[in-house]
Amino acid sequence: MVNAPQPQGNGKALTTADLSDLYDRVKGSVVQIRAGDAGGSGWVYDNENHVVTNFHVVQGTENVEVILEDGTMLRGKVVGTDQYSDLAVILVTTTQSVKLKPLSLGDSLKLRVGERVVAVGAPFGLAGSMTQGIVSQVGRLLQAPGTRYSIPNVIQIDAPINPGNSGGPLLNLNGEVLGVTSAGVTQTGGFQGVGLTIPVSAVKRVIPSLLAGGTYKHPYLGITGTDVSPTIAETMKLNTTRGVLVVEVTAGSPAEKAGIKGGTRSANVDNIPTPIGGDVIIGVDGTVVRKIDDVIAYSEEFKKPGDTLTITILREGKKMTINIILGERPPPTNQQ
Predict the structure, then answer these.
(1) Does domain 1-216 bear CATH number 1.10.579.10?
(2) Residue 330 per-residue DSSP state
(3) What pairing do the DSSP bridges indicate for beta strands 280-284 and 244-249?
(4) DSSP designation for 169
(5) Out of 41, 50, 56, 279, which one is annotated catalytic?
(6) Catalytic residue among 29, 166, 201, 253
(7) Where in the chain is the domain with CATH 2.30.42.10?
């Protein structure tokens, strides 16, 4: 039985030839990376022989091997990393006979659920492998490796993602990069239908900074919060079930300096002891906040250290507006 062709986002049937042509256009720009005992994938970022991959692929390694689609093996040096976004950039040493072709960048912020995408990489070391699927959700959070912070606006896909795919590109049907494949959500070690991809919007923010100075500075607020649930709303006598309850404010943080209040007492919320009584964030810069994901995503996408974040809160039933001058997130090794 022959499977019917699947529709593209524009309504046109997607044929095998379409996918084959797409693969032929991008295969030379996707590489395999060997970093000691670890391995993964990457893709050519610019005409200066820089390759983008995941931080966790090259973590703890300075010199790597970069293998092209035709088997050519080149030397690479890690020139910038950002653990908080799980991104890294490698400078590849090439010869006159080797010309690396960069991929074009798409727009992950305009992605819609249901759009068809492809991933290219080296699952299990099998270089040049392509899988296809759809965007199954956007706006997910993914914990940055080795930290307590989350990467916002992560793209969820159903294209098969396995060990070795990490660092490879997620592409739209025009061959534009939408994200960097980072993880497969699994309980068995094999793919189970959910893959997570760091959005290209993060690449556009982080990689230029890594190229300029090797690091990227993330904005820092300094709160721990939880989504307002019906139980929290009832316990605190709130007239809304949206927003973020501030549970704790980090000492010396921008939030503390601005006067943000954390929990003042403990209550049993859904059988879990929870600090309540703190401020409830319901807006940032005039944008409605429904859950903590909104605060994280907005700050990362649109703010940098030194910027002012205007937040709207509920405090003891009264609406207030507070301006916070964002700081710089501490290095991962200094987290408490």
Answers:
(1) no
(2) P
(3) antiparallel
(4) E
(5) 56
(6) 166
(7) 219-334
- The answer for residues whose C-beta is within 8 angstroms of residue 56's C-beta and 6 or more apart is 86, 145, 166, 182
Distances (CA, A) of 190 to 93, 131, 194: 34, 15, 11
Structure tokens at 194: 């959910």
Active-site residue (options: 82, 86, 279, 294): 86
Cβ atoms 336, 253 nearer than 8 A:
no
Cα–Cα distance measured from residue 56 to residue 69, given in angstroms and rounded to the nearest whole number: 22
What is the number of alpha carbons within 13 Å of residue 273 lying toward its C-beta?
3
Quick one: CA torsion of 5, 8, 10, 12, rounded to 10 degrees? -20
- Per-residue pLDDT of the chain (336 residues), as tens digits, is 334 334 444 445 566 678 999 999 999 999 999 998 888 999 999 999 999 999 999 999 999 999 999 999 999 999 999 999 999 999 999 887 889 999 999 999 999 999 999 999 998 888 889 999 999 999 999 999 999 999 999 999 998 888 899 999 999 999 999 999 997 554 455 556 789 999 999 999 999 999 999 999 999 999 999 999 999 999 999 998 999 999 999 999 999 999 999 999 998 888 888 899 999 999 999 999 999 999 999 999 999 999 999 999 999 889 999 999 999 999 987 443
Residues of the chain with CATH 2.40.10.120: 1-216
Please say if 56 is a catalytic residue: yes
CB atoms within 10 A of CB 226: 19
Q: Are 57 and 63 in contact (CB under 8 A)?
A: no
Q: How far apart are CA 213 and CA 227, in angstroms?
A: 36
- 86 a catalytic residue: yes
The CATH classification of domain 219-334, taken from the options 2.40.70.10, 3.30.750.24, 3.40.30.10, 2.30.42.10: 2.30.42.10
